[in-house]
Write a structure and sequence with these properties.
4-stranded mixed β-sheet, globular, 10% strand, 5-stranded parallel β-sheet, single chain, 12 helices
Length: 362
């Protein structure tokens, strides 16, 4: 099938097993950002009967669960103004996820890479279609409308499909890290193992594209409680692991200067087609409405529309016309900044980051 991986990585014997291009992973179902606990409940109730008291204590613990502590609360209607270059109302960045899925990956203890018994020829082939066929259709459409992609890259693509990297470079696209394989997760990794993943992806992107690594999207949206701090320590400038806002957000880390860039789950083509069973017409209408609302709000303060896409979804023959229609709609408006993630992060860091940090509600 595909050539063997280039890197040996560090041997780690865990539930994923084996030695791959990077450190093996002990798959855990948890791995979301760590939650902290308040020291007291938010309200006081009369003491319940002894049997009910235990249930009430459990409820109280659940209610004391607070936010991640990684960013401040900034109400949408009470923030410093964002002024994008040239007076643009909205920054639009398009994010093709160019991924590599292993045909027969090691099995995890809890989360399995494929929904069917391995080897899952069906799901592997569906995703391989995107790299073989669908991506070319998307590239042609985006080039027609003058839109550069910010590639969320499984860096194993550099080894397996170097022609894809060459074509993206020729179009002036940005490369950011989406891990190594999209069938390997960060769940259960130690900080040093996770740090090695960051080093591997950074080195691979620099070697094969000549670009520095500025952006990050965790593979298959897997995180540990260490991910954000490690990204900041390693000089990553923005992450898309949060889906919490329509403007960039400074993240609270012990070091570095890391921000979250808007990357909308709501207009992500993967759940839209695979989970929500949307038709191309309905999906295209939804994306246009997303743009229209953010464009209108951008008259007061600049907004961001991050559009996550997957070539094996949107590059299908029956969907590509809709993609062209949406791009035509977006580019028909004045005051639209067609940017890359790096460009948005650069501008925000220089002109807005400190003002947003100083304006937080505490």
């Amino acid at each position: 099938m595909a050539p063997p991986p280039r890197h040996q990585g560090v041997a780690h014997h865990g539930e994923m097993g084996g030695t791959a291009r990077f450190v093996g992973v002990k798959a855990l179902e948890a791995g979301t950002l760590a939650m902290n606990w308040l020291s007291r409940p938010r309200f006081k109730r009369p003491s319940p009967a002894p049997r009910a008291r235990h249930r009430a204590m459990e409820t109280s613990i659940q209610m004391r669960q607070r936010d991640t502590g990684l960013y401040d609360f900034l109400p949408y209607n009470d923030r410093p103004m964002i002024a994008w270059p040239g007076g643009a109302r909205i920054a639009v960045w398009v994010v093709p996820n160019i991924e590599f899925y292993e045909f027969d990956p090691p099995r995890g203890a809890i989360r399995q890479p494929w929904p069917r018994p391995s080897p899952d020829v069906l799901n592997y082939a569906m995703r391989d279609y995107g790299n073989r066929v669908g991506l070319g259709r998307m590239m042609e459409a985006m080039q027609r409308f003058g839109i550069r992609g910010s590639v969320s890259l499984s860096v194993a693509v550099c080894d397996h499909f170097p022609d894809i990297i060459r074509d993206c470079r020729a179009l002036g696209w940005e490369f950011l890290s989406h891990g190594i394989y999209n069938t390997r997760y960060l769940y259960g990794m130690s900080p040093e193992q996770e740090r090695q993943i960051i080093h591997d992806t950074r080195d691979s992107i620099e070697q094969h594209t000549g670009q520095r690594l500025d952006g990050w999207l965790s593979p298959a949206l897997s995180n540990t409680e260490h991910t954000i701090e490690l990204l900041a320590e390693e000089g990553i400038r923005y992450t898309m692991d949060f889906f919490h806002d329509d403007q960039p957000t400074p993240l609270k880390t012990r070091s570095g200067r890391l921000m979250s860039l808007p990357y909308s789950w709501e207009i992500n083509d993967a759940p839209s087609f695979k989970s929500w069973n949307m038709t191309p017409a309905d999906y295209g209408d939804m994306v246009k409405r997303q743009f229209d609302q953010l464009y209108a709000e951008g008259a007061e303060s600049g907004t961001v529309m991050g559009w996550p896409l997957h070539p094996f979804n949107l590059g299908q023959p029956h969907r590509i016309a809709m993609f062209n229609e949406v791009l035509a709609h977006i580019t028909s408006h004045d005051g639209v900044w067609l940017a890359t993630g790096r460009e948005i992060a650069d501008w925000y860091d220089t002109h807005c980051y400190d003002a947003f940090r100083g304006h937080a509600v505490v």
